Amino acid sequence: MASEQEEKQLAIFRAAADADPLAVFNQLVELRSGGIDPKDAGIVPGNPVTRKVKSPDRWAKQQIENAKDAGDDWLEGVKNPSRNPVEAALAANDKRVDRLKASIDAKKWEKNLAKVSAADIVEVATKLGSSVYTAGVEARTTKINKRVAELQPLVQSVSDAIQGMSDKTDADREKRLLTARKLMIEVGKKRAG
Q1: Is pLDDT at 169 greater than 70 in this prediction?
Q2: Is residue 1 part of a domain?
Q3: Would you say residue 122 lies in a domain?
Q4: What are the DSSP E strand ranges found in 24-177?
Q5: Is 174 in contact with 145 (CB distance < 8 Å)?
Q6: pLDDT in tens, 4-41
């Protein structure tokens, strides 16, 4: 049975959470990021029936195990989608654009990238080994052949245009370099459509 003090504390906490849950959330996050457990500090009531989120180790372990166990289901889903994934992605383009704009405004890319180190990347690559990379390239042979077949005539046209330009002086050679860059940008535009 909770004491009168604990009941009052629970009522205050509940009223604050009902009034402005976002503010309560942000305060709790700030405390935890400062190394203060709000429950231990007496801010969050010690209600024995309050659900506790799994520990980070247990949660991560379950996520990893469940993902590994779902590999065959994932492949089956890719082979038998409930709808055409390309059509679905195109239909959701407005949503993608809105979310991308919001992400850019919130600087999510920068914030998330700041959480990763070069050592993290090397660790994953080392654990996976080079065979993952080579298998990925091999699996995309058809796609690579298709893209190179689209790209080659465009790049050949850039080369032909540059070869047709004068190269007698340093100014001519500089102009060729700058023109090559501009034309390769045009190649990218043409490939994008």
Answers
A1: yes
A2: yes
A3: no
A4: none
A5: no
A6: 877 787 788 878 888 888 888 888 888 888 888 888 87
The pTM of the whole model exceeds 0.70: no
Instruction: With a cut of 70, say whether residue 51 has pLDDT above it.
Output: no
- Tell which of 52, 67, 90 closes a domain: 52
Q: For residue 133, is it within any domain? A: no
To the nearest 10°, report the CA torsion of 79, 82, 86, 90. Answer: -160
- Is the sign of the CA dihedral 65, 67, 68, 69 positive or negative? positive
Longest dimension (CA), the chain: 94
Which whole number is the average pLDDT over 52-58? Answer: 78
Rounded to whole angstroms, how far apart are CA atoms 185 and 193?
13
Q: Are 161 and 180 in contact (CB under 8 A)?
A: no
Average predicted confidence (pLDDT) for the chain: 89
The whole domain housing 15 covers 1-52
3-state secondary structure 32-56: HHCCCCCCCCCCCCCCCCCCCCCCH
Terminal CA-CA length for the chain: 69
Residues in the chain: 193
- Token pair for residue 164? 């047709």
CB 13 within 8 A of CB 44: yes
Distance CA 17, CA 147 (A): 54
